[in-house]
């Protein structure tokens, strides 16, 4: 998306570097081929361009694939991004180059950046933007280094086929009850799996559904941003008088402002106590997906549990998982032929195995943000090094900037971020600011 937005600025040459050619343009999320994997946002809010909100809907209409209120498949959105990239290649020619390689390091030298590639080559550029998306999930507490058999414990559900070798009636334990867990459950059942599934998380919360026919939310316009206690009272009152979704959606335009105004202690309290509740109310399921999950629960095949894993033992035929139900001191035991880590993408750089992240960390060219949600950046998106200095030539966008912006993991937010950055990189924001 940044490449597409940059190319619309005059005289910019873009090198888009991707180590997995099969995911070029679509990434992890939109490379899914499962028909059950739908977008969690209506098509009308998924354009890749903030200044052309109908771009995706027009693309859908031209191909008879849906309308602005539809929740289309993620594969369809991946196709949209790939076609947009292909059209950019045709339109802008040599100004866009796709590089099939992996970046191992980025250094600043003499007012430029030098990127070292896996194949041994070097690329020099005026700016480098880290658009690395989410890091793979971290192992839950107690499982890291536990030495569990690889065919029993799947640490990253997107790193391979987690259904391989699974018998149709094997019991499956899913660690996590959020969107990743929903994706994994849908894929299991779409392939005919009929065995029992237990989804376990500390609170047992699962994402809510979108509702059709709701009025437009009433924005909360407040400067400075309201105190959290005020906002909680307001949201509760709105939820009683209307649908709670309207209350949550009304907060969205000021979420980044609220996050920016909160100090480190307030942010940490939010993450510790409220983040699970925010996630299940803010990031919702398409109605068809929610219906499928509800049907699995009603049939008894899927059970959501709240609790904490105490220990895991590998037996010859399965894993024995000791867990403590929430609010209880009693230890229960689950038998799982396969346990899948669905705790979701993480952002702690210090736990990352990514070669680029590890090398830049070791060299002190980047550092984690205070809450270890991702990269530390300044207000304009420049990465901050180990000594607290903002880089002049290395920037970051997307989910790895959530420590500074929080609400920057969905397309509607990312397209605003990349659009603004594209203009800023060529100083076009000054022209827009003056209305020229």
Automatic annotation (TrEMBL):
Cited InterPro entries: FAD/NAD-bd_sf (IPR036188), HpyO/CreE_NAD-binding (IPR038732), L-asp_N-monooxygenase_NS-form (IPR052189)
Domain FAD-dependent urate hydroxylase HpyO/Asp monooxygenase CreE-like FAD/NAD(P)-binding: 2-134
Top-rank taxon, per record: Bacteria
Classification via Gene3D superfamilies: FAD/NAD(P)-binding domain
SUPFAM superfamilies: FAD/NAD(P)-binding domain
Pfam families per the UniProt record, alphabetical: NAD_binding_9
Entry protein name: FAD-dependent oxidoreductase
Classification of source organism: Bacteria, Pseudomonadati, Pseudomonadota, Alphaproteobacteria, Sphingomonadales
């Amino acid at each position: 998306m940044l490449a597409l937005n940059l190319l619309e600025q005059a005289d910019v040459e873009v090198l888009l570097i991707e180590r997995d050619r099969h995911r070029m343009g679509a990434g992890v999320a939109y490379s899914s081929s499962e028909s059950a994997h739908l977008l969690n946002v209506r098509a009308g809010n998924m354009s890749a361009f903030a200044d052309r909100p109908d771009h995706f809907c027009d693309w859908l209409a031209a191909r008879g694939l849906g309308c602005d209120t539809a929740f289309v498949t993620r594969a369809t959105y991946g196709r949209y991004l790939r076609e947009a990239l292909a059209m950019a290649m045709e339109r802008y020619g040599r100004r866009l180059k796709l590089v099939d390689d992996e970046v191992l390091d980025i250094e600043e030298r003499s007012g430029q950046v030098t990127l070292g590639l896996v194949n041994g080559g070097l690329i020099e550029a005026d700016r480098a933007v880290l658009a690395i998306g989410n890091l793979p999930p971290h192992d839950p507490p107690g499982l890291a280094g536990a030495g569990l058999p690889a065919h029993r414990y799947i640490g990253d559900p997107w790193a391979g086929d987690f259904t391989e070798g699974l018998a149709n009636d094997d019991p499956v334990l899913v660690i996590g009850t959020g969107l990743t867990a929903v994706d994994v459950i849908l894929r299991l059942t779409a392939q005919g799996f009929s065995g029992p599934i237990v989804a376990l998380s500390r609170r047992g919360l699962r994402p809510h559904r979108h509702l059709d026919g709701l009025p437009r939310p009433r924005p909360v316009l407040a400067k400075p941003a309201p105190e959290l206690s005020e906002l909680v009272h307001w949201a509760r009152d709105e939820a009683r008088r209307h649908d709670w979704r309207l209350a949550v959606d009304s907060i969205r335009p000021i979420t980044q402002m609220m996050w920016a105004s909160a100090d480190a202690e307030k942010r940490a309290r939010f993450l510790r106590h409220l983040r699970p509740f925010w996630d299940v109310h803010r990031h919702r399921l398409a109605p068809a997906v929610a219906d499928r999950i509800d049907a699995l629960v009603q049939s008894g095949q899927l059970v959501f549990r709240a609790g904490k894993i105490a220990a895991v033992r590998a037996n010859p035929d399965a894993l024995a998982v000791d867990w403590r139900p929430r609010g209880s001191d009693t230890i229960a035991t689950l038998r799982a032929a396969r346990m899948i880590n669905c705790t979701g993408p993480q952002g702690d750089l210090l736990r990352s195995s990514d070669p680029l992240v590890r090398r830049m960390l070791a060299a002190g060219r980047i550092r984690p943000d205070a809450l270890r949600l991702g990269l530390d950046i300044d207000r304009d998106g420049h990465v901050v090094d180990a000594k607290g200095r903002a880089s002049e030539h290395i920037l970051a966008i997307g989910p790895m900037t959530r420590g500074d912006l929080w609400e920057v993991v969905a397309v509607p937010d990312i397209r605003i971020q990349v659009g603004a950055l594209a203009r800023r990189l060529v100083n076009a924001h000054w022209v827009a600011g003056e209305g020229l």
